[in-house]
Amino acid sequence: MNRTAPSTLAVARAILAKDLRVELRTLQAVPAMLLFATTIYVIFRFGLDRTELEGGLAAGVLLVTILFAALLAINRVFVAELEQGGFEAIRLAPNSAVPSTGAKVATLLVYLVVLELLAVPLFGFFFLDSWAGIVPLVPVLLLVDVGLATTGALISSMATNSRARDLLAPLIMLPLLVPLMIAAASAAERLLAAGGVDYDRYGLWLAILGLYDLIFLLIGWAVFDFLLED
Amino acid sequence: MNSTSLRNLSIATAVLIGAGFALVFFYAPNDADQGFIQKIFYLHVPLAIIALAGFIAGGVCAIQHLRTGDGKWDARSYVSIHTSVIFGVAVLVTGSIWARASWGKWWVWDEPTLVSFLIVFLLYATYYPLRYAIEDRDRQARYASVFAITAGAFVPLNFAAVRAAQSLVHPRTFATAEGGLPPKMWLTFAVCFAGIAALWLTLVRFELTAKSVSGQLSRLRRALDDAPPPRASGTAARIAPGPSASASS
Amino acid sequence: MPALPLDEAGQYVAAAYVVFVVLLIVYVGIMATKLGRISRELGELAELAERRRGEGER
Fold first, then answer.
1. Rounded CA gap, B236 and B61, in Å?
2. How many CB atoms sit inside 10 A of residue A229's CB?
3. Domain regions of chain C by residue span
4. What topology does CATH give the domain B7-225?
5. Would you call B29 an interface residue with chain C, using a CB distance cutoff of 8 Å?
6. What is the pLDDT of residues B78-126, one digit of tens each?
């Protein structure tokens, strides 16, 4: 056989396409996500005993909802993969370590973006007086999504192949996500403030989010081989 | 790991800590703002700094482990993190006592360093369940190393983020404790720091020796239990329990 | 002479140092138990080896 191994990019594209096809095929994911977000908002409405949210409280509710959804998504993507033996098949492909996890990150990212396209307007509909803060919130949320996807992919690869993965993955991930959440909450708090959108230090928080994403992308890229070689 | 170096290290530790504590109570002046309570800092701060340095050292050892595949680096990584977690418990408890003495509450969210440390501690506390959940020895060591590297890189990031968040809201209230220390306090702090650092090294060395001995013992037992001449078996000490050694070594 | 005000502040400081010492002693205790186990196992293995040698000579 004189065939050269497929390029890394080709492998990544193939895996991403496969994952997305699987996800998109199950369009039941969309109403399910909508339902999930709605229920969480209702719970918060009663738990906090508030009908309107602004500032820090609004930021907290929104981000926690996204965090929960991310944890579910991560579990879903990896556990389904594991149970169908996808990991073994992927490992057999040459040059597969980085692209397969790159594809995982991309899948999670798409998942989260689609979720937010639904959940954020819903949040505004339920709780917000003015939607002025939503547009500047978009870059914040995008950076958060990248961070969630990267960290999620990294940690669940580690935890998926272990016995107590359902509990272990969130347990490890949540402390790691704290700086991300801190930066996002600080930015969102100001954007959703009652007195109008506050751009104070907006750039700083975006920078911290970006830095976090960069660091975890680098770490993930550096260590992924060791997680998949078996 | 020979015994004389361990002994010398322990002696150095005892001397330094003894001298340090003596300095704390007999030499260092009382702080102008906090009075006698400030004495806790000579214990709390070195413990915190050494613990964090230990976590990062664990990450560095993990890098070496992934690069060389040598099990002794994994042992060093594990023991570094393990010792630092224990020191971390001491940091959080002494920090809480200090908070109670200064603020009247057992915990304050206002002090960014303490909060950051709690987050780091929670992260490293998951190191044990991670190791114990993976049975295959090689994979366990490898994944643990990945974790140690990720977590080690996370430590500075976490401190920066928490400090950025809190200092913008609450000004640093304990700057007086750290900045502009009079020379007598500096000396006391330096000796205590050296003592705690020596203690960390001693405990790490101690535990590594114990692990190595256990490993040798298992090897010996395996050699004696097999009727035919013993095969060469790995000397890597088992860090976390798993299924008993299979014949595949 | 050290001025040790045994008021409230002193108790907290003492508590912190006591915690430190106790943790240290607990650690030593656990290591001592491990050491005991190791030496017991070593004794068993020494017996085993001597027994084998006895069988070999026979």
1. 15
2. 10
3. 29-58
4. Four Helix Bundle (Hemerythrin (Met), subunit A) (1.20.120)
5. no
6. 999 999 999 999 999 999 998 888 878 888 887 778 888 999 999 999 9
Which residues, listed in sequence order, are joined to residue B10 by a DSSP beta bridge? none
Q: Enumerate helices (H) and strands (E) in chain B, giving the number of each.
A: 8, 0
Nearest to B5 by CA among B169, B200, B211, B209: B209
Look at chain A and report how many structural domains it folds into.
1
Partners of C34 on chain B (C-beta within 8 Å) are 210, 214
Main-chain dihedrals φ then ψ at residue B86, nearest 5 degrees: -60, -45
pLDDT confidence of residue B77: 96
Report helix, strand or coil for B35.
Answer: strand
CA-nearest of A109, A89, A57, A85 to A160 is: A85
| Residue at A191 is within a domain | yes
What is residue B247's predicted lDDT score, i.e. its pLDDT?
Answer: 42
The predicted model scores a pTM of 0.82
- Whole-angstrom distance, CA of residue A59 vs CA of residue B232: 60
Q: C19 to chain B: which residues are within 8 Å by CB?
A: 90, 93-94, 97
Is A2 within a domain? no
State the pLDDT at residue C3.
39
Task: Kindly list the distances between the CA atom of residue B193 and the CA atoms of B10, B43, B51, B175, B199, in Å, as whole numbers in the listed order.
Answer: 15, 8, 11, 19, 10
Across chain B, mean pLDDT equals: 83
Residue contact B139–A223, C-beta within 8 A: no
Q: Which neighbouring-strand residues pair with B31?
A: B35
